[in-house]
Amino acid sequence: MNSNPVHYPWYKKEDTDAFFALFQNNIANFVIIAITMLGMGFSTSIVFGQVLPGAAVAVMVGNFYYAWSAARLARKENRADVTALSYGISTPVMFVFLFGVLLPAKSLTGDEMMA
Question: Which pLDDT tens digit goes with each residue over 59-73?
């Protein structure tokens, strides 16, 4: 095994394309979440004050965690070809949650905070 430590870059020019692809995907999902929840009768204070900020923080923290994990693995295995998995809202799961969990919960309880 190579005894010289391999330099693991935190940024490469290819990351710019990946950032914008993931950003656009997550923005589209956030818009769908907002429109759907507002259409279900959820208040703007819940949608824009709790749900979307919470999802945004979760996506940001998840991406930083995956980047940190990739860097840790690169150091451990002395490799520079490790990459982080992109983290975001799964579109199919988002629809299952919106229509299979959130809508029934709001319909059954009549309480948007409970849902």
Answer: 999 999 998 999 999
